[in-house]
């Protein structure tokens, strides 16, 4: 019996001008010169915004020949996760991997802290503008570092331009693709779930689809879009906005236009819309899907149609026991790291909303899969028009979805432009050409 209307392994057909890419990150072997001082940064945001901060901090420390202190994770009222660096990442591996390129220590030495009454808040803090060029760090930060021997940069997310010299990009590549590994408990749990998904999809050579669904209450509320929950949804969203962003959406003159938001592709896809899109793209009821998501808004109601279309859909909560997830349950970043691991190793990754999670995954998958992201990125503006057209038949809708899927394939290989994120586009800074063939893109 044929379980799939097509083989998942046949989705990706494009190549980059007949060239395959491979990981290509050079690591130093020599001895580092004497350090210019210590840099302490505070990483804010969720899992992958913190990852941006860590990698950029490594790049800045390497560029300034400074010693990086293990970053502190800022506790955020939205994420509500008190995890430390070592709870999310393998700290020892991180320090050892970078040893010949960037010095990393877990604390500022006592002889320096004594000068500041053992209080880091007394250390000089730079308020760096977003996307600052490397010249700013050379001309403004380095002199103060040489003078003080220890400085703080807080907050630090997105405080380094993506348009940086090749030497700086090398540090980013090394941190993101080599040095940062999840902590052993997260890695073990994640790999266990990957193996379970491969086992369940054994009839398709262990290949499965992962979907990042952003339909949590805070996402729905922040989008200012209207779905089909009626008065109850309206009241829930008003309360959620006030809880998370006090007064932001009720300022005088603030006008919320849900219809315009939807037409502009700003609304998160509902579980129903995701199901229709995937069925239109050729995935059928036998497809095994791993769903990466937080608590879905009004899940009993909103998830029902997606589960009916894809009864083999799995989540980490369905694959693992409560006991297995207990060490991670109350920590949003640790749970997100498990989702990240299972999505990373899927044959197809489907992103339904922008953000750091899918962006890092796309780049990481490019790094692992020869330069191709193997990611479906739907055009939400186009989807809004199609979903809202009552005259559109299934055949026409399916034709549009297959075209959208093919477009994602054609965009799988993309080279980084100067202003692009190296974490989304690792070619060519973090990768090099593996071979040249006479084959052309199909």
TrEMBL record:
Keywords: Carbohydrate metabolism, Fucose metabolism, Glycosyltransferase, Transferase. Pfam families: O-FucT (PF10250). InterPro entries: FucosylTrfase_pln (IPR024709), GDP-Fuc_O-FucTrfase (IPR019378). The keyword Nucleotide-binding does not apply. One of its GO terms (molecular function) is glycosyltransferase activity. GO terms for biological process: fucose metabolic process. PANTHER family: O-FUCOSYLTRANSFERASE 4, O-FUCOSYLTRANSFERASE FAMILY PROTEIN. Belongs to the glycosyltransferase GT106 family. This is O-fucosyltransferase family protein.
């Amino acid at each position: 019996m044929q379980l799939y209307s097509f083989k998942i392994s046949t989705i990706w057909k494009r190549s980059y001008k007949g060239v395959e890419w491979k990981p290509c990150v050079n690591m130093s072997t020599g001895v580092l010169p004497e350090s210019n001082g210590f840099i302490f940064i505070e990483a804010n945001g969720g899992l992958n915004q913190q990852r941006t901060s860590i990698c950029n901090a490594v790049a800045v420390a390497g560029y300034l020949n400074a010693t990086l202190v293990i970053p502190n994770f800022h506790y955020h009222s939205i994420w509500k996760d008190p995890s430390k660096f070592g709870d999310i990442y393998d700290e020892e591996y991180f320090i050892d991997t970078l040893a010949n390129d960037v010095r990393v220590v877990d604390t500022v030495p006592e002889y320096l802290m004594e000068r500041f009454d053992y209080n880091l808040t007394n250390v000089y803090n730079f308020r760096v503008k977003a996307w600052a060029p490397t010249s700013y760090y050379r001309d403004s930060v380095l002199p103060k570092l040489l003078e003080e021997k220890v400085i703080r940069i807080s907050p630090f997310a997105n405080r380094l331009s993506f348009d940086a010299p090749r030497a700086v990009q090398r540090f980013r590549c090394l941190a993101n693709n080599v040095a940062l590994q999840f902590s052993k408990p997260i890695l073990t749990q994640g790999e266990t779930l990957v193996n379970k998904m491969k086992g369940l999809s054994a009839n398709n050579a262990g290949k499965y689809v992962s979907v990042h669904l952003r339909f949590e209450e805070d996402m729905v509320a922040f989008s200012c879009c209207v779905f089909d929950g009626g008065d109850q949804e309206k009241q829930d969203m008003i309360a959620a906005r006030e809880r998370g962003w006090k007064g932001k959406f009720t300022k005088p003159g603030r006008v919320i236009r849900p219809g315009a938001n939807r037409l502009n592709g700003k609304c998160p896809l509902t579980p129903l819309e995701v199901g229709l899109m995937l069925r239109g793209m050729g995935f059928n009821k036998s497809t095994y899907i791993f769903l990466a998501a937080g608590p879905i808004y009004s899940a009993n109601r909103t998830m029902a149609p997606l589960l009916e279309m894809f009864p083999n859909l799995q989540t980490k909560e369905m694959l693992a026991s409560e006991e297995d997830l207990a060490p991670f349950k109350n920590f949003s970043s640790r749970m997100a790291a498990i989702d990240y691991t299972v999505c990373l190793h899927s044959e197809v990754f489907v992103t339904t909303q922008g953000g750091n999670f899918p962006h890092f995954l796309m780049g990481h998958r490019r790094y692992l899969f020869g330069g191709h992201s193997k990611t479906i990125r739907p055009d939400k503006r186009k989807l809004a028009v199609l979903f809202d057209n009552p005259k559109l038949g299934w055949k026409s809708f399916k034709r549009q979805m297959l075209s959208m899927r093919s477009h994602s394939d054609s965009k799988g290989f993309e080279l980084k432009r100067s202003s692009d994120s190296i974490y989304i586009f690792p070619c060519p800074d973090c990768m090099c050409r593996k071979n040249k063939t006479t084959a052309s893109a199909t």
